[in-house]
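Sequence and structure are kept together here, with a separate record for every protein. A complete record is shown below as an example:
=====
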Amino acid sequence: MKEETFNSTDEGLKSLAIDPDVLAKELAAELQGDPLDEIDLDSFDSDRSKILNECQLGLNWLKQGHEERLQGLRVFCEHRDSRALALLIPLLSEPCPVERMSAVYALGRNPSPLAINKLLELLEKDGNAYVRKAAAWSLGNYLDSSVMKPLIRALHHDVAAVRLWAASSLAEVGSISIEKAETVVSELLLSLRIDQEPLVRSNCIWSLGRLYDNLQFSLKVEVSEGLFIVLLNDLEPSVRYEARIALEQIKDPDVVIRLKTLLEDGSLF
C-alpha cells in the first residue's frame, strides 16, 4: 500500500496532537492523522542539516510533556535516529493510546531488537485497535522469526484494519526463508478465500505477488490458480484488478497464455 509523505514544516510536525478522548470515541472509524497513512518509506531529504535539526528537536520534545512528546514522535515516524530508541521504547507503555500508537509507528521507522517483545504484546493484547494496527505495520520491519505466528493470528482473527496490515507485513516476514515463505503463502491464500473485507483480500494478493518468486513450483501453481479464481469470481472489482496485476507480473508461460486467452474471449474487462 502507498503512504503519503509527511509535511516537514513545523505545523506538520505538530499536527499529531490529537485528543485521546476523541480517539477513544471513534475506534470504529479511521483515525484522522494516523501516522501510518502518512509515512513515506521511500522519502529522502537531501538537506542533511535540516534532518539533524529536526531530530535534535524531536529528541528534546520526547523528554518533555504529553503534547511535546507527540510532536517528537511525529519526527521519528519520519526520520531514523538511533539516539531516539531509548526514549521511544518506554512510550510503548504509556496510558495514552495516541502516544502508544505513535511510538509503535516510530519504532517501525526505527527498528530495535529491544522493542520486539513489547510490540508483539501490543499486537496481541492492546485493547485499542489503532495501536494493534500500528503494531501490525511496524512488525513488518522486524525480520525476526518470532513475529510470524502473531502476525498470522492477527491476519485471521483481528479487525479489518489490523488484518490488512498483517497481510502486508507477512510479505516481509516471508522473505526471510523459503520455509517461512511457504507458511505465509498458505495463510495468505486461506485469507484470500475467506476474508470478507476487500482491502484485506487486496493486501493478501499484493503479498502473494511479493513472495511468488521465492516459492517452489507446486506452490507457485497453487498461488496462480488462487489468483485466477479471484480474477474470475471475486465480487469486488478492485480485488479482481489487483489479481490481474499480480498475474500479469508472473512470467510463467502457462499463466501468460491463460491470461491472453481470457482477454481474447472477452472474459476480462
Observations:
- Residues 165-269 form one domain.
- The chain has two domains: 1-142, 165-269.
- The radius of gyration is 20 Å.
